[in-house]
Write a structure and sequence with these properties.
binds nickel (II) ion, single chain
């Protein structure tokens, strides 16, 4: 495993839709390990493959490790197939937009289906911070960062703050 450099916005790779992985090869397993090591080193609670320049649909997260034991999770070819209509607005940062925190509206709960490192399909219901983190990382796989979720006015303010 290796700690990889994290790309910073506006690197074009952060605005690119990533490709499906399909088969979980040893290279994909190695990528997941690198993503986790890079996330823990950052330190962060989620990281998506395009953030290290790999344009594949993989993200990792561990939302609780800063307050308890590590529980790394790897999501390959994830699909958010249900989102609650109930939404919440909260502050979000991003390792690719260091120093910037923006208020983003997210579904409070999501149902997610993904391929695991074991190659099998998994399904789970995520709520609270887990749901927010998964939506944030999933966005990265579609080339979407927090700035894209803001109104034009709020985005202009955030971009000015980020560049300053
Ligand atoms: Ni991010």
């Amino acid at each position: 495993m290796a700690v990889l450099p994290i790309l910073r916005w506006p690197d074009a790779r952060l605005s690119t839709r990533c490709a499906e992985v399909g088969v979980v090869t040893p290279a994909v397993v190695a990528l997941a390990g690198d993503l986790l090591e890079t996330m823990y080193a950052a330190p962060g609670r989620g990281l998506a493959a395009p953030q290290v320049g790999v344009l594949q649909r993989v993200f990792v997260m561990d939302t609780g490790w800063k307050d308890g034991p590590r529980a790394p999770r790897v999501f390959i070819d994830p699909d958010i197939f249900w989102m609650s209509e109930d939404r919440a607005v909260g502050p979000e940062g991003c390792l690719s937009l260091p120093g910037l925190t923006t208020e983003i509206s997210r579904a409070r709960a999501v149902h997610l289906r993904w391929t695991g490192l074991d190659g099998a399909l998994h399904e789970d219901r995520l709520v609270g911070f887990d749901a927010i983190c998964a939506q944030h990382e999933f966005d990265h796989l579609d080339g979407i960062v927090t700035l894209h979720r803001l109104s034009a006015e709020a985005r202009a303010r955030a971009e000015a703050e980020y560049r300053a």
